[in-house]
Amino acid sequence: MAPIYGTLIPRDLPGDLKAFYKTLLDVVRENEKNGIDPPTVIVITDLAKDYDDLLAMMMLKEFHRLGLIKLRGFVANLEPAGKRADFGRGALDLLGLDFVPIAEGTRGFPKEDEDKHKLHDYEFDCPFMKERKVKETGRELLYRLLIDTLDGKHEVKEEVIILCLSSLRDIAEFSREFPNLLSRALGKGKAVLQGGYSVVDGNLMASVVNKNLKIQGAANNNFDPTAAIEFHKFLQEKKIQTMVFDRNAALNLKRPLPRTMFTDMARTGEIGQYLDRVAERQESKFFLDATGPPENRFGYKAPTATDPGSEGHDWNRYKDRVKRWPKDKPQPATFDELRPYTDVIAYDALAALGVLGKKFIDKLKIIKPRSSEWPDTIHQVVGNGSEPDTLDGTVDGMRTALEALLRGSLLAVLQGLSSDHM
Fold this sequence. Notes:
The protein is α/β, with parallel strands linked by helices and 422 residues long. The chain has helices spanning 5-8, 15-33, 52-66, 81-94, 138-147, 169-177, 179-185, 219-222, 225-237, 247-251, 260-265, 270-291, 315-318, 335-338, 347-352, 358-364, 396-414; strands spanning 40-45, 70-76, 102-104, 160-164, 190-194, 197-200, 203-206, 241-245, 300-301, 310-311, 368-369, 379-383, 391-392. The protein has a 9-stranded mixed beta sheet, sandwiched between helices. It starts with a helix and ends in an 8-residue tail after the last helix.
């Protein structure tokens, strides 16, 4: 028998956020009544590079706790991948998910591209790093978890979702080595990505950097563009259902989440305190990377005889992150001046909502089609809804979902609510 509402909804949430939980649980009960099992979810993520990977983990914990998904494991990639896995192990344990494995993935980019990610001093500034007892590789964990989803005849016995929140190098390599296993496992499920793609003449095209065409590409695709192109080709050839969340959804929420939310969440313990501290330092660095001396800006590359170089980020690009900054005000001189206008930018948290089925998404009103019907395609793009055949992920319901799940996730831990669905 399913637990009653009172044992599942965290106390001390505002009324509208409690109502969100009740709506979630209504659909869970409907699915249980109809014999619909929750999907298996496996996550590939670059924890600690930005704080939004941790936000995604917190939300997935709630989905598992409530019976919406079966959260089976994480692969942490991007150099230093081992430290990211240890960060994840500590966070999972604090969230009550000590039974969920996490493995060390690849460096995330080719060796010759050493500058694809420069480690920031705030990334692992936390007290909950925890060395993993089981030193499984990402490849080994993916294989073990996906084999478990097949029956004795090697047919998929459940819906499987791969959630890709970082470099696609790991999943591209896996698709090359075990194409039949991956395609069979995803036969009833889908791949959800934080990144970007388009469908051109019926072909699924990964959005990758192209200097000649002045295309910036999606950051996660750009870590290893060759791997991104390879995996998108695999998805198309195997006719695997996908959903991608591009940066426009997170940057254009109709009701942004103010960063002061983390100050409230800091009262719940170590994870909330980490988010409050790191969000401040991360946003300050992003501001300085875009407004400091040109040679210090993110993406700056000095010109050479054969390469025009790049000026890198500037205020015009950065200000997409601070929608509440008055348009008639000049560029702020310091981050202190900007601080009250900064919001939670949660690319990966939005993508985590993609593991929910269409029934949940429609009921919660977190994503809306441009017209009355969803686009008739197996490849769904969630952005700000401005492009044809795309979905709008900036609606009011998205803000409510993010706030409810993030606040609720840490409150549930604080109040001793079991993270394992009964």
